Amino acid sequence: MIYADNAATTAMSAAAKEAMLPYFDQIYGNPSSPNSIGNRAAEAVAGARKTVAACLHAEPDEIYFTSGGSEADNQAIRSAALAGAKRGKRHIISSKFEHHAVLHTLQRLEQEGFEVQLLDVYEDGVVRVEDVRSALRADTALVTIMAANNEIGTIQPFTEIGAVCRAVGTPFHTDAVQAGGHVPLNVKAQNVDLLSLSAHKFHGPKGVGVLYARRGAVPLTNVIEGGGQERGKRPGTENVPGIVGLAAALREACEKMDKHNEKTSALRDRLIEGLSQIPLARLNGDRTKRLPGNVNFSFPGIEGESLLLLLDHEGVAASSGSACTSGSLDPSHVLLAIGLPHEIAHGSLRLSLSAYNTEAEIDHILEAVPRLVARLREMSPVWKKMKEVD
Ligand SMILES: *Cc1c(COP(=O)(O)O)cnc(C)c1O
User: Fold this and answer.
1) Nearest residue CA, atom 3 of ligand 1?
2) 94-112: buried (b, 16+ CB within 10 Å) or exposed (e) per residue?
3) How far is the CA of 54 from the centre of ligand 1 (A)?
4) Which atom of ligand 1 is nearest to the CA of 198?
5) For the chain, does the N or the C end have fewer beta carbons within 10 angstroms?
6) Annotated active-site positions, please?
């Protein structure tokens, strides 16, 4: 199988898997237990916290382990909203193409009386720093803008947005789930107060993530109540193997980032070049401000879902948008946000690569996609009409 769905999830790296194994059935103690097997588990969690902090240029006590990116997003946003509300601030700035973990949390806050302002992302899929600056108000409790988009791969000017927020003392959260391990992250230099990561997007295990919270920036509110784990902010017995695997995967991703990105972006560029030859093909998202592995095209006249089925049948695993919207008939909110008409948004294909992909796999995709798009168009009444208009 050719796996080109790395924005949805990645294969675990050998290093992450090896690092995790002892913590299932050898060092399986509870980190909170006063015995030596528990102490060893606690040491592993502490070591992982240091590793993650080093990768992000943060302090270990600014790292909280969560059940994934969604939980980190929820907790970051709820915390800043609550802290703001205590001081009469109920305005939140975000963008139209955030992940649903952010958008749905904001919807809930709206029901609770917050005012949510979603900025446009323009045709290139990039939020404008100037728009953030002019949206900021005295009663803005939080700005939350993703570091990189999961569907079209566009990298946002989050460092500049962070600087604008820092200058007026407004907390800034960034969902860096797609950026983590692929884009250099330095929370200090990048003016970030709150940041979310998820291990399974950088070759770590599923079900474990990170919330970075800058010391003194925003007091964290619990999403889960319980014991004293994670300084009381994220109770529940630690997912020790997951946390160890996350740290091993992040360390590897950071150490090999340049090498991996060089390879992945060369594969991406070949794919973009090749698929652009398909008549009326449209690349979604800015060509250069783009994650090294992201390719997202619309092919007018076809249904993305049909193309996916045919590709899957030929051994290529891809996606039509985000996994969360697949299965529903609504076109992706991201593609609509960059101004695509419904019928064109429906005919989109996301191929997301990793350093594990090969040249030969790209050759195969470049042979299959144009052939399958042509076949689908031959059967498509929509395409026939389009050609008549031409
Ligand atoms: C995958 C993803 C999430 C959710 O992370 P989980 O660990 O799957 O909960 C959030 N935001 C973005 C941008 C993502 O790509």
Assistant:
1) 69
2) bbebbbebbbebbeebeee
3) 22
4) 7
5) C
6) 324
Q: For residue 237, which of 246, 224, 252 has the smallest C-alpha distance?
A: 224
Cβ count near 295 (within 10 Å) = 28
Whether 175 is in the pocket of ligand 1, judged by its Cβ within 6 Å, is yes
pLDDT bracket for residue 390 (50, 70, 90) = low
Adjacent-strand bridge partners of 95: 119
Chain segment 13-64, per-residue pLDDT in tens: 999 999 999 999 999 999 999 999 999 999 999 999 999 999 999 999 999 9
pTM over 0.90: yes
Q: Which numbered atom of ligand 1 lies nearest the CA of 201?
A: 1
3-state secondary structure the chain: CEECECCCCCCCCHHHHHHHCHHHHCCCCCCCCCCHHHHHHHHHHHHHHHHHHHHHCCCHHHEEEECCHHHHHHHHHHHHHHHHHHCCCCEEEEECCCCHHHHHHHHHHHHCCCEEEEECCCCCCCCCHHHHHHHCCCCEEEEECCCECCCCCEECCHHHHHHHHHHHCCCEEEECCCCCCCCCCCCCCCCCCEEEEEHHHCCCCCCCEEEEECCCCCCCCCCCCCCCCHHHCCCCCCCHHHHHHHHHHHHHHHHCHHHHHHHHHHHHHHHHHHHCCCCCCEECCCCCCECCCEEEEECCCCCHHHHHHHHHHCCEECECCCCCCCCCCCCCHHHHHCCCCHHHHCCEEEEECCCCCCHHHHHHHHHHHHHHHHHHHHCCHHHHHHHHHC
Q: Is 68 in the pocket of ligand 1 (CB under 6 A)?
A: yes
Cβ of 95 less than 6 Å from ligand 1 = no
**CB of residue 361 inside a 6 A radius of ligand 1:** no
Q: Answer whether 290 contacts ligand 1 (Cβ < 6 A).
A: no
Cα distance between residue 202 and residue 181, in whole Å: 6
Which of 10, 12, 70 to mutate to test ligand 1, by most ligand atoms within 8 A of the CB atom? 70
CA of 103 to the centre of ligand 1 (A): 12
